[in-house]
Amino acid sequence: MIKPDGVQRGLIGKIINRFEERGYKLVALKTVAPSKEMAERHYADLKNKPFFPSLVEYMSNGAAPVVAMVWEGSDVIRQGRAMLGATSPLDAASGTLRGQYCVSIGRNAIHGSDSFESAEKEIGMWFPQAGELISWTPAIWNWVMSNN
Ligand code: IDP
Ligand code: MG
């Protein structure tokens, strides 16, 4: 998910481009203005953290939408997290998205599911309707994914 700061800063295309160029497949995408309830659900595992109220406010105050996406391909959850970089951009490797574009933990531009279970939960939350995930085969799929 591209967070409101990533949208405001015009990073949508750059972030999508990184996943596309790596060879991952886009199976769902939408802009959403998250409600407070959706932001709270999305970050439910952090509800006891001191920054939780301001995180939820920032995600749901309507100053910018978020871009929710589902990407598919080999090891995409773990690789996606690596492409994002560390939660604190000051610890993120320079080749990562956060390491290239961000300097603040409160404005780190992107969210990525951290496990299969959280991906399932988050995909269900942000794309709840039948037909929102598109099954398709990129013409280059085997050129990218084949192990021979
Ligand atoms: P992640 O986004 O790398 O998965 P999490 O620990 O799940 O990191 O935290 C979710 C989000 O909460 C972070 O991306 C960041 O925006 C915010 N956050 C995490 N830790 C802090 C903090 O110490 N201060 C302020 N915001 C934080
Ligand atoms: Mg997280």
Automatic annotation (TrEMBL):
The keyword Nucleus does not apply. Its EC number is 2.7.4.6. Residues 1-134 form the Nucleoside diphosphate kinase-like domain. The active site is at 111 (pros-phosphohistidine intermediate). Keywords: Kinase, Transferase. GO terms for biological process: CTP biosynthetic process; GTP biosynthetic process; UTP biosynthetic process. It comes from the Eukaryota. ATP binds at residues 3, 51, 81, 87, 98, 108. It holds the Pfam family NDK. SUPFAM superfamilies: Nucleoside diphosphate kinase, NDK. Its cofactor is Mg(2+). It is an enzyme of class 2 (transferase). The keyword Translocase does not apply. One of its GO terms (molecular function) is nucleoside diphosphate kinase activity. Belongs to the NDK family. This is Nucleoside diphosphate kinase. The lineage of its organism: Eukaryota, Fungi, Fungi incertae sedis, Mucoromycota, Mucoromycotina.
